Amino acid sequence: MAMPGSLGEWLDFIEQHHPEPIALGLDRVAVVLARLGARLSCPVIAVGGTNGKGSTCAMLESVLRAAGYRSGLYTSPHLLRYNERVRLDGQEAGDAALCEAFAAVERARGDVALTYFEFGTLAAIWLFARSRLDAVILEIGLGGRLDAVNVIDSDCAVLTSIGIDHVEFLGGTRESIGKEKAGIFRPGRPAVVADPDPPGSVHDEGARIGARLLLLGRDFGYRSDPTQWGFWGPNGQRSGMAHPALRGAVQLRNAAGALCALDALRERLPVSMRDVRRGLADVSLAGRFQVLPGRPRVILDVAHNPQAARTLGENLAANGFAGRTIAVFGMLRDKDISGVARELAPAFTDWRVASLAGPRGTPAADLARALEGAGVRVPIAQHPSPAEAYAAAEAAASEDDKIVVFGSFVTVGEVMAYLDRGRKGLDG
Questions:
Q1: Where exactly does CATH 3.40.1190.10 map onto the chain?
Q2: Do the strands 380-383 and 402-406 form a parallel or antiparallel pair, or are they unpaired?
Q3: What does the alpha-carbon distance between residue 209 and residue 229 come to, in Å, rounded to a whole number?
Q4: Quick one: which of 40, 134, 356, 399 could link to 361 by a disulfide (CB 3.0–4.6 Å)?
Q5: Residue 210's CB: how many other CB atoms inside 10 A?
């Protein structure tokens, strides 16, 4: 059979390749990686956690690039283009490079069935191995211990937070989830834990394997006031820094985790105070409390579990006055919809709920019932898609209102695509 040609054809191929969309385990990935012969000879930082992974990865990349290092960054999922998942020296990988990488994986896999995520992870590693990089940052997809990314032995692990999510794979308690996420730790290597109250399982797993645990509040931390912040860690203190360009109080914690990781790797990847300042000032990441220019104020946030919803609510409360705050809300059915609804029930004066397409999508009617069950008594309007929900919210909003798009990468991605089309129509 001839191999796919375009990137779109490759993505269709790898999506249909494995009977299950998620099949945790490292055996298949390890076999194909060995056949690929791809080796990462530079320092590797693995970033896991329930929330804050994308922000921490973006800050690590930005500081390393400010210091002049050539970096590779692998993240998931994407908002608009698959290319967003693989970045080389600050730029999205091109279609041709991704197609070449997919072809290399396809030739190597033989009769081994790979999931979409496993295929993409191996392709990213193959590209990084060929790109003469100074550092690689890998975001863990789901959990940690059995996630495909964990096939790589990282030089430093970062655990951003432990919340309740993906319970069908990781268990329904912070203890069980923490143990799975601590599976990215390695013996004798630094493991940065940026959760302020990690479950005991994280400590236990770190001690069991002999990882060098670096704990928030014990081994590193931060202090802040409205105009600046300071960090202290394994390599001393940095003070008088401007707040990171990413918005929200939680970003200081993410930044502290990133700086602690860089402190732990300072002998191989030294960065100066100037690099840190410039990197944190220049960092950007779509969909993480992203405030768009103009009026009404539009905020995009991929919050899709109760912990992230709580952070979104705190950020909204600190974001200044609005006449009305209108929610554009869509979630996947395997998420804790009721938990998110309870966290954000008081935050909005109007709700525009949207059905998401596909087998994992939740119909708008189900979202409306969850909101009513969480105590929402303000208007709830139902729409066939996030784009239509956003268009209706925009039409109803005045200049002093806020529109907040959240609940899923899918929801935010569809609204971003609609905005990119210049609001020329929902079928454009």
A1: 7-282
A2: unpaired
A3: 34
A4: 356
A5: 12
Q: Can the peptide bond before residue 386 be classed as cis, meaning omega within 30 degrees of 0? A: no
Question: Do 72 and 141 form a contact (C-beta atoms < 8 A)?
Answer: no
Q: Distance (Å, rounded) from C-alpha 118 to C-alpha 24?
A: 9
Six token digits for residue 280: 């944190």
7-282, CATH topology level:
UDP-N-acetylmuramoyl-L-alanine:D-glutamate ligase (3.40.1190)
- DSSP letters, 8-73, are HHHHHHHHTTSSSS----SHHHHHHHHHHT----S-EEEEE-SSSHHHHHHHHHHHHHHTT--EEE
How many residues belong to the chain? 428
Which pLDDT tens digit goes with each residue over 396-424?
Answer: 999 999 999 999 999 999 999 999 987 55
pTM for the model? 0.93
Q: Is the pLDDT of residue 427 over 60?
A: no
What is the CATH class of 290-420?
Answer: alpha beta
Q: What is the pLDDT of residues 44-86, one digit of tens each?
A: 999 999 999 999 999 999 999 999 999 999 999 999 999 999 9
